[in-house]
Design goal:
This protein has 392 residues and is mainly α. Helices cover 66% and strands 0% of the residues. The chain has helices at 8-33, 46-49, 54-64, 88-100, 104-127, 133-144, 158-173, 177-188, 194-210, 217-245, 250-257, 260-263, 273-284, 289-307, 310-313, 317-333, 340-343, 351-354, 360-382.
Length: 392
Amino acid sequence: MARTRLAWWIKVSLIFLLGRAVSTAMLLVLASQQAENAWTGAQPSLWDFSSMWDGRWYNIIAEVGYPTQLPVTEDGHIAENAWAFMPVYPALVRGVMVITGLPWNIAAIIITVVCAYVATLVFYKLLTRFVPAQQALFAVLLFSVAPVSPLFQLAYAESMQLMLIVIALYLLVRRKYAWMIPVVLVLSVTRPGSLAIALTLVLHWIYRAVQKARFPLKEKVLVAAVALIAAFSGVVWLFIAGVVTGMPTAYLETELAWRSAYIGYQELVPFTPWIFAAQWWTTNFGYPEVAGYVLLAALVIGFVIFLFTPAMKRLGVDVRFWLISYALYLLAVFFPQSSTFRLLAPLFPALGAVAAPKSKVYRVTMTVLFIALQWGWLLICWRIDGYDWSPP
């Protein structure tokens, strides 16, 4: 009797379910130990425990929308508020709530899981354009048990963001440029990322233009148009926030409020936040300031070297263009703190290269390591232990 071979989507689905089972077990253990906090009572249900932190901001947006008047601190600065969170995810959850009658937390987590599942399927299809199926499946496993993979079942918009990013990349490598437009537009009001897509398209245009392979004028114009749309949509939320509140800098000042606890209120100067962070983290933990600069330089150099490894090259130029573009975006605007791990999630296509070694020992070790790091992330960033300075 011939052996029955499972379809690719069944294999990917089983891996995804395994990852969610691992995360669920961890969340249940921590929920059973969680003390009363600002979001929940003691020992909350899985649904309540999975919708804390920024999930409450999305809950507020779904229920009452955005403020037209920005809250102000005692010293006159813009305080943390809902404008830091974009509207597609809470609007979609609100629609599910209205249609089904489900409460916020259950509806939100359903949307999160569905988006994560779609992202996982498309991630596999993207990778199999470049690497063998077994390598792609191991990359999917690493994706499903990654240190921040609990986000795939928490009331956060990251699953939707990753889904839209991987769909955009899949369309890009297939040169379905026009189909990228609606994806990029939705991404621009889901989570930040459209500006990085715009830079990816610019790099893609330059690469194709200098190659000997044919790059028709029609495609040149189309790629340029999609890049412009991505660039414009990447700042459209800033304009919307400014128009609604009557304050042109509403979004930027709202975002800056989140890092004020570390370095106070400062204007955003591109590519300086990581330098400030190198100073802050080293001096506040008793290390010489130069150590932070050395570590930052090592991270940047290490990332560049990784991009040119044989395993990364096999993933194609467009995947590497995305990794470069998103890394530059983070370096330009983000102040590293406990949310850094979550904001690194869009670099997940690099897992295709991490999954390259075929050694069983390597693959088992990496899987166990990722699961252990997932537990560590939940302990450090998700569980609330009194006054918590490490939000996810």
